[in-house]
Amino acid sequence: MLVTLKDILTEAEKLGIAVGAFNTPNLESLQAILSAAEELKLPVIIQAAQCHEPWIPLSLIGPIMIDAAKRARVPVCVHLDHGETHEYLKQALDLGFTGIMYDGSAASYEENLAGTIRAVEMAKKTGASVEAELGSMGRRESGAGDHTGEEDETKIYTDPVLAESFVRETGIDALACSFGTTHGIYLKEPRLDFDVVKNVRERTGCIPIVMHGGSGVSREDFRTAVRAGVRKINYFTYMDKAGGQAALACIRSLRENEPVFFSTISMAGRDAMKEDVKTAMRIFAMK
User: Fold this and answer.
1) Which residue segment(s) compose the domain that 202 sits in?
2) Is 221 assigned a catalytic role?
3) Which of 42, 148, 196, 264 is buried deepest, with most CB atoms within 10 A?
4) How many Å apart are CA 93 and CA 95, to the nearest integer?
5) Is the pTM here over 0.85, yes or no?
């Protein structure tokens, strides 16, 4: 069942949970995520990220995501993750995406504000919801194999006072906050400042907070974040890693001179991603 980001986050707010948002740069990941959500009977957000365009074009994976969401037995939002240009946002909206993220966090506050307002105006034409980012989680995720640590000098924690005016002036539906997470694989345990989340929520009338860089965060910190007001958690790197490790194990299990079939390897990766997603979804739903 295809629904908007706002629909899913409104329900998450009522239940006091967070909804998992998982990127789908291939068919195997899409199958793994939706199968996990249906098995657990939980809503889910499937995402295409602009930085994954070299892996699979939005024009190709987007319609498949929309069709799969419509057929799903649980509520599904089809969302654009880290849309950096309005042209790319428009492409997603024209395909039928029900949520878009405009990422102007690398620009000045004024430029981010203006760009987000424009994104909200665009989304209104199709009834889609808008997520924006204030602050910076540090160096951007560019693909598989990224490694990040907590000492990232490009991090800028979200200012709750600025967040109040930003949310009011833009009319966004969700705000991605920087409170200590980073994209990619953690080399060290992150130090999270949950007061940022609480203070942003207090000043903005409890806008749903989005956690980017969710992979590698401990189970306890995830649950603390949800209690603080995080309602959407982006999770991809460790899911992707689980699939890669399963594919490697499948290859290593073959006997000498035994033929290698890509379909066998890809299914092993798909099944491992599904189990990893199920574990994450249970944590986000406070189960």
Assistant:
1) 5-284
2) no
3) 148
4) 5
5) yes
